[in-house]
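Hello again,

I reread your note about wanting to compare the complex against the isolated chains. To keep things tidy I'm splitting this into two emails, and this first one only covers the full assembly. Below are the input lines as submitted, including protein chains and any nucleic acid or small-molecule components. They are followed by the predicted structure of everything together. The single-chain runs will come separately.
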Amino acid sequence: MSTPTDRLYTKEHEWAKIDGQTAVIGITDYAQSSLGDIVYVEMPKPGASVERGKPMGVVESVKAVSDIYAPVSGTVAEVNASVEDDQTKVNNDPYGEGWLVKVTVRAASDKTDLMDAASYDELVKSL
Amino acid sequence: MLTQPAQTALYRTHIRLGAKMSPFGGFLMPITYSSILEEHRAVRTAVGMFDLSHMGQLLIRGEKAPAWLDSLTSNEVATMRPGQARYNIVTNGAGGAHDDVIIYRLPEYWLVVVNASNTDKIWQLLEASRPSGVTLENRTPQSCLIALQGPRAVDVLQTVCDLKLADLKYYYAATGIVAGNRVEVARTGYTGEDGFEVFASSDVAEQFWEAFTNAGQQFGLLPAGLGARDVLRLEAGMPLYGHELDENITPLQAGLGWAVKFPKTEFTGKRALEKQRDDDAYERIVGLAMEGKAPARAGYSVFYEGQRVGDVRSGSPAPALGGKNIATALVHKDASPLGTTLMVEIRGAQHPATVVQMPFYKRKK
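Full-complex prediction:
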């Protein structure tokens, strides 16, 4: 699966697709593939604030619990309820239907250490 | 000093199959090949194949062997019939478990199969107390162990084995020809399904894996890793050393009282276990059915009426129960009766769970 170029990536394998004040957040294909069958997703509730680089939720596979780190700071606007019911979407379509939350980005949120797709691919290749 | 994990004779096969590898018990072992859920389903509905060559295989010979093994373990050894296999616990002086093992009574020797992480410990323990006339051999490095588990395991193995497997009873072993080699075949396993474990020389490991893969094609065989194996054994209510049983958790606490034979003559830890039984105040392993969707995981705290009463020892979603979350926990006696509602703390939030009878899953005979 090729890494979409319309968004930014963290070294912890999240992505953020930022459009104006809204960031859609999910995990990368590498992350879902490393985790294996995802069985549980726990995200912050709408209205909760998230801080860039801090854990904001978990994604669990059969055997592993993995923290999800916020790629941006802001307030949760929406949670993808459909992945809470059907976690296989995160495995099958991590960059599309498997998105996790939408965050209203705080104006001052820093994006300097987020990577573009090419840099993220380099990181994954080095692992 | 860190030592590199060892490799089984099937290491290259696992890599070729694209397995995710992880250190376990001193070996680099396959955790999953495709998907833990798919591998689990194969074992419950068809057949799965496991490389268990990391497990220790110790051979004991000599007339005094059964009496000596009886002195070190809580279950009976000398009463085993020829060909029989029996679950047993190597106990310490406090009644805790040095290891849980399967002992096989084979024609030429007793085979003790130990957990990989405990092979050296058990070897040293046996070597230190070995009576004269008894010999001990660690054949693990020259051996492989491949398990076929699931309702179609018998069909797969029968294709390449000269034994009449229908006549091999559960928890018995026999010597037979498999894929042209004389080997030991046991009807044992760790999945809650019917199945077989084949003990052979490491030289034939790849040949056997290939033969089983080919024979298994028409029966839906999948290679399965330790991830699926852990879920399968938890559903089947079987303990995993280091989780439900360890040096500080006795077989009585682990719910393995059936494997503690008090009428047996002296064995290590017998008095401590008798006292624990008589006092009946010990913490014990319970099965938990979680109410919510959040899985319980090893180490999470367990509360009863506001008090911390223990911790989760193993936890996973149970695919055989529609994905319901199950767990084992070591808890105070007061919190252990069936039907008790306990709270499991998950990331700071309390999630209800009910104490239920184990096993969580039982196959239809």
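For quick reference: The CA atoms of residues 72 and 110 of chain A lie 7 Å apart.

B.
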